[in-house]
## 1
Amino acid sequence: MSQVVKVGVVGTGIFAKDRHLPSYQEMSNEFKVVAAYNRTKSKAEEFAKLANLPDNKVYDNLDEIMNDPDVDYVDALLPVQFNVDTVKKAIAAGKPIILEKPIAANMKQARELVELSDSTELPIGIAENWLYLSCIELAKKHLPRIGDVVGFTHNSTGPFVTNNKYLATTWRQSPEHIGGFLSDGGVHQLALVTSLVGEFESVSALTQQVREQSGTDDIVFSTVKIRNSKTIGTFTYGSAFGATDKSVFLKMYGTKGSVVVELSDKANPVVKVRVGETAETAGAEEVYPVSQEDSFGVNDEFLNFREAVLKKDKKLFKSSPRVAFHHLACVAAFLESSAQNGNNVTVETI
Ligand SMILES: NC(=O)c1ccc[n+]([C@@H]2O[C@H](COP(=O)([O-])OP(=O)(O)OC[C@H]3O[C@@H](n4cnc5c(N)ncnc54)[C@H](OP(=O)(O)O)[C@@H]3O)[C@@H](O)[C@H]2O)c1
């Protein structure tokens, strides 16, 4: 296999054109898109023009692209109810595959996908670019300074945006995936929070549907207990409100201070640290700008997957199906808890 890894793109919709292709093109020493397949062929042809693909590399079906010997790995960007079947085809063809988040449409499929991944040495990844945000490493560096993390507050709230191009996709308006936007966007937030405070053990949550266009519940307010730890916190998510500011932060409270990841201004994220055991001994607030590149983690995610493919070592890829399983399991637990009027629910494990 050459050092330029050759990618076959399946599902040439919005995110394939707006983010995956530009990322591959920015890293042309490492990647080349060599083939495409889309259910509606005209959209694959449009994509092929942008990617400079010859006509014979725009395929009519999934099997053809999976079995193309020029393709080193497949990158699938589909409504996630198709992830399991797409992985089955990739395994049958002996191709590594990375699929867009969330891992699957429900927990049964998510379990099946983890089991499929466990059954092969092929790298199988779930693209969760938030796992690669630079603020995570920066916050991790400062966390030991604040003693034991005993609590956290995560908030991701914003106004409803009607001209959102993602909202216009029919599969999002009538979601087959549990939680609709709560899983579509919420797994990003869960990737950030669980990377820093640990996996959720149990939740008490209330969810609601605010906007008809969301297709299902679109806001969640919850309390959380972290697994194997005394840490407790809150997780709030929703962009279905009336006019309000975009407010995205994770505040972690320790016995000797606090660390805040502040992402409200996506272009200028910061990590803020305060050290001191009490108000009287508190030091001044330290503010660290985060250098976040434009792809918001996607480039690093692809480089990480490339390494796993080149070294034929699936363990090298951080965003494994098992990691992504937990994020969807949290959403499933929010929904189950809410259906029981906020009863405490244990998050499913695998
Ligand atoms: N990481 C992120 O920040 C991020 C951001 C956006 C999206 N995503 C993920 O990217 C994926 C695609 O999202 P998108 O926003 O790009 O949506 P999109 O534009 O609707 O693209 C979905 C693609 O799937 C194809 N498709 C739909 N139903 C199909 C079926 N029954 N069989 C085969 N193909 C089918 C569509 O083909 P047609 O052209 O025939 O409809 C289309 O090309 C999703 O998994 C989403 O979660 C991730």
## 2
Amino acid sequence: MARDWVDWHTGYADPESTISRRLRAVQEQIRLALDAAPPGRIGVVSMCAGEGRDLLEVLAEHPRAADVDARLVELDPVLADRARAAASALPSRVEVIQSDAALTDTYTGAVPAQLVLFCGIFGNISDADIATTLAASPEFTAPGGVVVWTRHRREPDLVPQILDWFAAAGFEPLSVSPPDADYGVGAHRNTGPGRPLALGRRLFTFQR
Ligand SMILES: C[S@@+](CC[C@H](N)C(=O)[O-])C[C@H]1O[C@@H](n2cnc3c(N)ncnc32)[C@H](O)[C@@H]1O
């Protein structure tokens, strides 16, 4: 049976839940990426954005919010509506698309972005799909741009492999949460030239 992702989001009601603490770690990396973004427009893409809490709560108080042009992609209509409602109060331009985030065509016109969020995905797709998604990162991320990502640390811990896949794609680590945290959050910068988006591809399939 498919997972109830609206129910999953109720975990954010408890500020000490694992996902709430993970959210704060993600938001710290988003804040740092926005602080460091070059002057002018800041393109942002969020895959499987859920309610968009990570980005939207940071934008609510970030001095660069008015420079942000974001595309959030979320399949669930209830969550997409919540993200739209939260975004409506911001000075940023935020487009919430209710669509399949795994399809590369969904990102036409929004990439390469300065900030790319892969949050809440890598615990729900196969290792092969994670590798495929990371290999495509240079198509999503502008040169010098940042990917913020998450993955749980349960055994077998895939984070070391994820770091290797980022390195192979030309990304350097900016931050990786400590191994003993009960979540995994990282930020990687694209040190390469980037690559045009290859259309017509599926990057991953959610396993539940
Ligand atoms: C673990 S939640 C993460 C939500 C958000 N990124 C966060 O970290 O709070 C996974 C999200 O992916 C969405 N999702 C699952 N498959 C998807 C797909 N193929 N395209 C877009 N969204 C999808 C679910 O509806 C859910 O909101």
